[in-house]
Amino acid sequence: MFKKILIANRGEIALRIIRACKELGVKTVAVYSESDSDSLPVRIADEAICIGPAPAQDSYLNIPRVLSAAEITGSEAIHPGYGFLAESSEFAEACESCKLVFIGPNPEVIRLMGDKVEARAKMKQAGVPVLPGSDEEVGSIKEAKSIAAGIGYPVIFKAAAGGGGKGMRIVKNEKDLETGYRMSQAEAKATFGDPRVYLEKYLEKTRHIEVQILSDKEGKTIHLGERECSIQRRHQKLIEECPSPIVDEDLRQKLGEWAIRGAEAINYVNAGTVEFLTDDNKNFYFIEMNTRIQVEHPVTEIVTRTDIVKAQILIAAGGNLISALGGIDKSFIFEELREIHALECRINAEDTEQDFMPTPGKITNLHLPGGNGVRVDSHIYLGYTIPPYYDSMIGKVIVWDITREGVIARMERALNETVIEGVKTTIPFHLKVLRNKKFRNGDINTELLETVTE
Ligand code: ADP
Hints:
The chain is α+β, with helices and mostly antiparallel strands. The chain has 16 helices and 22 strands. The longest helix has 17 residues, at 249-265.
């Protein structure tokens, strides 16, 4: 087992990883930017080291600085969390060449799945259904026209190097195809430095359902069931739940088998997520694979009674799946899965009445919820100042109960009890969604929030 791990991240996920390390008896090193010097991960880690000024390019995204911090502190492994360097194959490779264990899959797999065109091709080859679309990057408007005519409108242009909902353009008819193509390319180039885009059939009012997998170095992969992540705003998740209200045991096994097949086809190691969209007839199609821990992992942890972050560390240290999951063979857990339901709301410091504009600033009054069936993953504290430089998520409230109905009531109770003053948050918006009839009935899709105004 590792003696010391460096956490190349900040905020709630840095704290989440430090907590896992502490339970494993592993020393922790937090790295931080100048604007995060009084953050909770810095206070709670065994050691903390400043890696540069506030802009992420000069600190959390700066590979030489992160690696120097690891070297100076004698760390053996690096956990990248999500975002920042988590899906940088260059970083994973640099770790390897510095004899540091990168807690995640190998650089080649990160690169392969990071290229969504290649990922689609690889999954198709492995027998996993993918959305109809282009087999390669779209090279010209002529090509785009012929592919779109073949799959039928609406279609969506997506960035090959995409992430965070950037570079996507929905096109409803041929007349708008050229503009969509150019805009998608321009945004892809500006955001990712890579202008390549591809085409997919656009599924209206679709559901986003993803499968959590875990693979060890011995080549064994298991799945930990699905997460329903259809409550999104501008293609970014806001509320997630496990299990999905529309997935039954047969479907779960089918999705799980596809996810495992996909992971095995690329010799995947560590935790990963295989994402699917579904059409009205419950046909599922692969859209992408995330090669890291996800924001929404806690709902799976609760339902499957696992600790995915600990499992990531144990697998990276060479442990097999059974030891990584605390000595329990989890392949039979799914009988238990339907007995518990978990829901997560992402709390962002944003003004939902001002187009979700970020509201950084000082927290002047704070009460976080507790009680039966409530977990809060958050790095905020009374007097903490949310810096303006990073993502606006300040925490996650996760609740569970034996029914979906019970879990919604519990989330309403937990959010109503929460007090965060000094900055605006997404809590009032979450409460509206929780009261929405369609949401309550499980009749949800990725466009539902556009109609939630009450
Ligand atoms: P990113 O990596 O940028 O987050 P994804 O491919 O994971 O992009 O898609 C994010 C979200 O965008 C999906 O959950 C869904 O809401 C929407 N989306 C992506 N592709 C499609 C599609 N082909 N049809 C309908 N919605 C899509």
